[in-house]
């Protein structure tokens, strides 16, 4: 006869998302919707992009390839939003770098499932040599993008260039299935919060975008912690 403990354990396994993950997603969605209602109320594309973005992060936090599919959609929408404020750096970064890297990451995650589970990717740890290579590659890409952004007279050039660096490093680590991708994306969130605060000082509608990236920051930090737990569990 099945014990109460066994029934409880089976019930827990049937719930893909933990209670704290559902609470994080719901909290993020509610804050994003409220900020849209208070500060924007017109640019529904921003609202849709923000909700897709936080949804992608909660899937990415669990190493689920669905997160990369949603990130592809978010990159397209965010590129359009960035173009509207002449943040050409963000537009070029997401459409020309984050978007294709999300496609590569999707393929990588699908090809490397943990124990044949399509809903969880196998965590990878990169070597010191590869880390140095990544840093050098990031420096080259950032330098090239700096001159491209300068040519297009990008608004707030310096933080925009820093955003390129953090975005590329995070995208590389995502492709390589390293837990640190979420931590670097968290650094990128901080840069983007600064960027959109500067935009919001000119147009209060962009306060909703600031709130969006604050929500992203909390989700990315959770993603990093969860990937470290995944790494330890997979090693066992």
Verbal overview:
The protein has helices spanning about 5-15, 20-40, 45-60, 65-85, 90-110, 130-150, 155-175, 180-200, 205-235; strands at about 115, 115-120. With about 240 residues, it is mostly helical. The longest helix has 29 residues, at about 205-235. The chain starts with a helix and ends with a helix. The model is unreliable at about 1-10 (pLDDT under 50).
Q: How would you describe this structure in keywords?
A:
3% strand, disordered N terminus, 236 residues, globular, two-stranded antiparallel sheet, mainly alpha
- Rg is 19 Å
Number of strands: 2
How is the largest sheet built, in terms of strand order?
Answer: 1-2
Along the chain, the helix and strand elements come as HHHHHEEHHHH
> Low-confidence spans: pLDDT under 50, at least 5 residues?
1-11
Task: Please report the number of helical segments.
Answer: 9
**Average of pLDDT:** 89
Helix coverage percent of residues? over 70%
**Biggest sheet record:** 2 strands, antiparallel
């Amino acid at each position: 006869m099945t014990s109460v403990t066994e029934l409880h354990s089976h019930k827990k396994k049937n719930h893909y998302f933990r209670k704290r993950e559902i609470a994080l997603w719901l909290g993020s969605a509610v804050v994003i919707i409220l900020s849209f209602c208070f500060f924007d109320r017109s640019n529904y594309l921003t609202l849709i992009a923000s909700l897709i973005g936080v949804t992608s992060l909660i899937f990415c936090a669990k190493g689920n390839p669905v997160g990369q599919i949603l990130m592809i959609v978010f990159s397209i929408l965010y590129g359009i939003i960035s173009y509207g404020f002449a943040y050409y750096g963000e537009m070029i970064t997401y459409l020309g770098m984050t978007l294709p890297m999300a496609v590569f990451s999707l393929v990588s995650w699908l090809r490397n499932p943990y124990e044949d589970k399509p809903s969880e990717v196998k965590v990878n740890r990169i070597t010191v040599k590869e880390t140095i290579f990544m840093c050098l590659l990031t420096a080259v890409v950032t330098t090239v993008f700096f001159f491209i952004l300068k040519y297009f007279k990008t608004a707030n050039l310096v933080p925009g260039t820093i955003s390129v660096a953090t975005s590329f490093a995070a995208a590389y680590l995502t492709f390589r299935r390293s837990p640190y991708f979420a931590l670097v994306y968290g650094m990128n969130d901080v840069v983007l919060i600064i960027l959109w605060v500067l935009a919001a000082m000119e147009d209060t509608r962009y306060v909703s975008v600031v709130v969006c990236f604050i929500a992203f920051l909390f989700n990315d930090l959770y993603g990093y912690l969860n990937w470290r737990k995944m790494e330890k569990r997979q090693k066992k």
